[in-house]
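Hey, I'm writing a tutorial for new members on how sequence and structure tokens pair up, and I'd like a real worked example in the thread rather than a made-up one. If someone can provide the structure for the chain below, I'll link this post from the tutorial.
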Amino acid sequence: MTSDPALGLDRFNALPPEEAADLLLEICASPAWASAVLGGRPFAARADLFEASDAALDLLSESDLAEAMAAHPPIGRPKEGDPVSAREQRGAASASEEIKAELLDLNLRYQDRFGHVFLICATGLGAEQLRDALRERLENTPERELQIVRRELGRINHIRLTRLAGPDTSARSDTLARPDGADRPKDPGSGTADRAPERPEKPEEAEATAEADKPKDGGE
């Protein structure tokens, strides 16, 4: 994402489709996601925008997710000249050289194992927490990791959509977001106020998570 627009929901609703689509693609680089969200306009409240984002995300195929992930830089290496990427990863920017080297090594190992960038909603997380999350998620199966990637992308989308839509003046609460899982760092620190709001976990997601977390014969 190369810009940080604060447009407001009413102005976003009124934009020509091409301009609105361009803004959405800066938030999430999946054309399928952007098209689905665009089709939900006009939005009466920010919560409606979040709901449309989550519904679109749930329908993305693996190739759609790959398109979205390809636009995210590795943790510890935000895109040069991209203030949004730099802000989202500021916790890693102040890391010691030792931790930066660990992050680089873990990122490479993760990409070798799963074939895509390590995706996490890094807002509010310190370098040590990001490192620990990388270590933990390297132990996941590809199927479990895909579930987590989808959830983390939803969190990132919510934060970026909040900046796009600006303050919500409607009476509706925007408490729609991805559930927090046990794989998340336990102490996100002082940056939690900038995190996306959470939404209850769907029954099918809970069942998939419980099944994925059962110990397997022989161990791993």
